[in-house]
Amino acid sequence: MSDPARTMLRRAIPSPRRLLPAVLFGIGSAGSSIVLLACSAWLIARADEQPPVLYLSMAIVGVRAFALGRSVFRYLERLTGHDASFRQLATIRASVFERMLPIAPDGITATRRGDLLDRFVSDVDELQNVPLRAVQPLVSAVIVLVAAVIGIGLIAPQSALAVLVCLVVGIGAALLVQQRAVARAERTTAPLRGELQAAIVEHVQALEVLVAFDAAGAGRRRIDELGARYAEATRSRAAATGVAAAAMSAIGGFAVAASLAAAVPLLQSGRIDGPTFAVLCLVPLAIAEVATAVPLAASALRLARASAARVAGAVPDVVPAGIPVMPDSPAAPPAGDAPPTIELRGVQASWPVLASPEGGRGASTAAGTGDRRGAALTRVDLVIAPGERILVRGGSGAGKTTLAHVLVRFLDYEGSYRLGGIEASTLDPADVRSIVGLVEQRPWLFDEDVRQNLIFARDTASDEQLLEVLERVGLREWVEERGGLDAAVGERGALVSGGQAQRLALARAMLAGFPVLVLDEPTASVDPARADALLRDITEAASRAGRSVVLISHADVDERLVDRVVTLEGGRVAEEHPYPSTIS
Amino acid sequence: MKPLDPRLIRRSRSARGFLATGAALALVQSAAIVAFAWALASLVTGLIDGMPPADAVPFLVLLVAAASVRAVAAWVWDVVGSAGATRVKAELRSELLTALEAEPEGLSGFPTARIATLLGPGLDALDAYFGQYLPQLVSTIVVTPILIAMAWIADPLSGLVLVIVLPLIPVFMALIGMATQAVQRRQWESLASLSRGFLEVVGGLSTLMLFRRAERQTARIRAVTDDYRSHTMKVLRVTFLSGFTLEFAASLSVALVAVSIGLRLVAGDMLFIAGLFVLVLAPEVFLPLRNVGAAFHASTEGVAASVDAFDLLDAAEQTGRSSDLRVVAVADATNEVTDAAGGLHLRGIRVVRGDRVVLDDLDLDAARGEVVAVTGESGSGKSSLFAALLGFVPIEGVARLDGARLGAGAGGRSGVAWSGQMPALLAGTIASNVRLGEEHADPALCTRACRLAGAELDPELRLGPGGSGLSGGQAQRVATARAIHRLLARDAALLLLDEPSSALDAGREAALGDALHELAAAGRIVVVTTHRPALAARADRIIELEPAHV
């Protein structure tokens, strides 16, 4: 295990004080179940000697008390354990988030795609299982097992030794087999599952095309073949983990036999009485049951460790090259609300190369693109005058999004980028973002109502102001139809179309009043028939109030909407002209 | 949720065989448990009564053998469970894919993402269902009654205690479940949104940074998570009660049995060996039930997945039935066909999707050599027209190409080449994408199709999953090339292109127009939907669709 992963795991463990109640209740519960069986065995064996009932009363009380204790302690163990792990979850989430801040968003692989994001978040949340399913049960079980073996040892050292050997061999075998099964799963099962899933997703997503081209059969054969190989791998893994489970199940019987055989000489020599002998024979059953917690905790720990490694890999300790760092003593940003002149001279920039979230595997199918999200800028010279509206065109791989991210200081640059004459790298990146705003290609909508999705851009805005800005982006009618500002947008904006999401994001940016606004491919996820209208509406809305506008688009726009067109090609400005001269 | 979906047994032969094997193994396990308890009781009582150690050896051997048999049976169960799971998974996957292929446009209520999840992780969740839950369920049904019967034979009073306590457990759990359900349902929604709080902040991080709101989120994360904790704990306090009931009933009945046996032994009313036998057996009676409870939790995802899978299959069957009816309607309508000449002839085409009529009473004729543009607002049914001609959606009316019927059914789309609004490219080389379904065609056709579509890319360039690695415009041109390749390779008559120029600049759009005329000149029919005036203007004829009214 790499060091960052271990640090991450350690951070997931709550302070001993917080974990203590659950550990104690766990000891109480497991201990009770062993003592319950001991008491019961002693009671029955002693009763067989037909003493006066008085002699049995302690045992009878004990049996009832420990029966009750076992279940009550177990209930309390689960409650306190969950409480401690949830409390730790707040700490884990906050500390991971704080590590993300200096490198976000472009230094973090995990937020780049929806599925990666889901996994990252569930990986972070998985860490709460470290105390709940690994540390606490393990500590409780080990303490009880040690105490039980010592307890037996006080009566019959030979039996204690026999039980100990059975426990060590059984648990050891189970852990070993588990370990090997997991290693094998990582080697064969997981990649096969990934391949199968990729084939299925592709098949389902392209089903129309496959059927229309009479090519569905070939896809099905590939899925069946991968499915058969995956099934074979899962079967052999199940056979291996089954051995571990069987070993744990056999411990009880073998420990009983061993303890019994070791205690027989003591019984015959009269050093122990009948009831004690019965206890020595039966108690290993309860001990073995407690021992089953150990392999379970180990496999929980293994799962959490994999999550910790992924989280640690996704959120590196050091800021990767290409991500802006906060200057030691930031310069004062240009004053005033008017848009400053933006001057780019020989700007070079590239995306940080990040560890693949799949841990290197599976990257082979990513068409050799590695994990750079966008193209580099090789040399960009560009001046944007205050209030100017420019269109940045270019094919995929020309560096359009890279340029947008340099402008808002998500990405670092070499060369010179001046805002109103001040070098951007000497400013606090947050101050740059108060001047230059960006409407992203796929804007994030929070799972709240429309008001909440707008108001954080300017928390003093009144409902009337919100509706007014919605009017300007052509959404007022739509919002009012849905019940006004309280209308929900759904999880990740599920209830709104791509075009409406863009309009909402633009409304948000306009509320914030950025003097310079960058619009990155606003029509990327919009139905082609509606794209032109959307582009016109939002460019018109954005360019009011003397704002500078940088519109990034692969498609042409109405010539009246922009003052100038810049074409990017291979990371540099290939062509620059006022709009009407060449395109008609 | 039902403990066992009857559809699983009805649908899956593998599942039935699996349950039968499981029942047999559960019998073996019961026998091993009883033998173990008997051997242990005999050993302890015998040795205390002064049995010579040599006589104890056979019992000891039986004890170890019984423990081993039990462990081996558990292992076989694991293997059988896993094999059963993989077989049922393969069966379901294959049935689901077949059902989906019959409805390539998808089923309402089953978006692609849900289907992909169902076919992958969803079906994988059946591993826990088959590997853990079902074995425990079968054990409960088979093992528990046998053990109670054995306890009864040894000591009727203990048997009675077990018989009384055991059924109380499900009753109490049901009562607690009912009492908590209302609480839980109320909590559930707030829990779900609270648990998403962190995801929202992480996912929206770049947005928050753009609005300089990111730094303040740490406190919010703590607050939201703490809120989540206190809400969840309220629910858990109640939820864990059902687990408590189980544990409590199990240990209480062990205590009851032990005390009652003890008191009767003192009075000399029963045998030591019988008492010890029942004491060892009593916890085993409750074990399967306790395990079912735990495994049920682990398998809920699998149960949900199997329910999802059966819902999808049922939905597909429903749709299948209704489209069979439609085909009959088409067959009747074909009697009215008068035009036996070549070309495309559509008469009174009506397409219904769900409850919505998307296309009503459309007539369209196109002769070979013609380029026809179909225009109309978004939602006017342009794409539905293509889907109907391809047989993806049920169609009423007459649709004939060179006299043969178009649409679903054998050969219904053999003379049609199509490209949709979404490029939908596959992982693999550009050439393998273009030659999809026509892998044996002359490689020169691939070059020609790419040239016509303006997809001048390296044919050996490898694309990632979903065709990633190309820009939107490039992907669109490759998809167009794929349709043209099929048209050429099959010598098909009809080319359908859905918004082929939406991501193209003016120059490429003009080139595409030329290419369409070149294809039409060779005697093919080209129908293209577009919202772009420039492309529409290149067609020989423009058909304007208006949204259909019910």
SSE topology:
The complex is a heterodimer of chains A (584) and B (550).
Chain A: H1 3-12, H2 16-48, H3 57-100, H4 114-126, H5 129-155, H6 157-205, H7 207-212, H8 216-268, H9 274-291, H10 293-314, E1 342-349, E2 377-384, E3 389-393, H11 400-407, E4 414-419, E5 422-423, H12 429-435, E6 436-439, H13 450-455, H14 463-472, H15 476-481, H16 498-512, E7 516-520, H17 528-542, E8 548-552, E9 564-569, E10 572-578
Parallel strand pairs in A: 3-8, 3-9, 6-7, 7-8
Antiparallel strand pairs in A: 1-2, 1-4, 4-5, 9-10
Helix pairs in contact in A: 1-10, 2-3, 2-5, 2-9, 3-5, 4-10, 5-6, 5-9, 5-10, 6-8, 6-9, 6-10, 8-9, 14-16, 16-17
Chain B: H1 6-11, H2 13-48, H3 53-102, H4 112-124, H5 126-154, H6 156-195, H7 197-203, H8 205-210, H9 217-266, H10 272-333, E1 344-353, E2 356-366, E3 371-375, H11 382-389, E4 396-401, E5 404-405, E6 416-419, E7 428-429, H12 430-434, H13 443-453, E8 462-463, H14 472-490, E9 494-498, H15 506-521, E10 525-529, H16 533-537, E11 541-544
Parallel strand pairs in B: 3-10, 3-11, 6-9, 9-10
Antiparallel strand pairs in B: 1-2, 1-4, 4-5, 7-8
Helix pairs in contact in B: 2-3, 2-5, 2-10, 3-5, 3-10, 4-10, 5-6, 5-10, 6-9, 9-10, 13-14
Quick structural overview:
By secondary structure, chain A is an alpha/beta fold. Chain A is built from 17 helices and ten strands. In chain A, 59% of the residues lie in helices and 10% in strands.
Morphology call of chain B: elongated
Oligomeric form of this entry?
heterodimer
* Rg over CA atoms of chain B: 34 Å
Count of distinct structural domains of chain A = 2
> What CATH architecture of the largest domain in chain A would you give?
Up-down Bundle
Report the biggest beta sheet of chain A as strand number plus sense, adding barrel if it closes: 6 strands, mixed
Spatial ordering of strands, largest sheet of chain A: 6-7-8-3-9-10
Our Rg estimate of chain A from Cα atoms comes to 33 Å
If you average the pLDDT of chain B, what whole number results?
Answer: 83
Q: Determine the mean pLDDT of chain A.
A: 85
Number of helices of chain A: 17
Number of β-strand runs of chain A: 10
* Biggest beta sheet attributes of chain B: 5 strands, parallel
How many E strands of chain B? 11
Task: Report helical residue fraction of chain B.
Answer: 55-70%
Q: Helix/strand/pairing class of chain A, anyone? A: alpha/beta
CATH superfamily of the largest domain in chain A: ABC transporter type 1, transmembrane domain
Report the span from N to C terminus of chain A: 62 Å
Q: Report low-confidence residues of chain A grouped into runs of 5 or more.
A: 357-372, 580-584
Classify the beta-strand content of chain B into a percent band.
5-15%
Strand and helix order of chain B = HHHHHHHHHHEEEHEEEEHHEHEHEHE
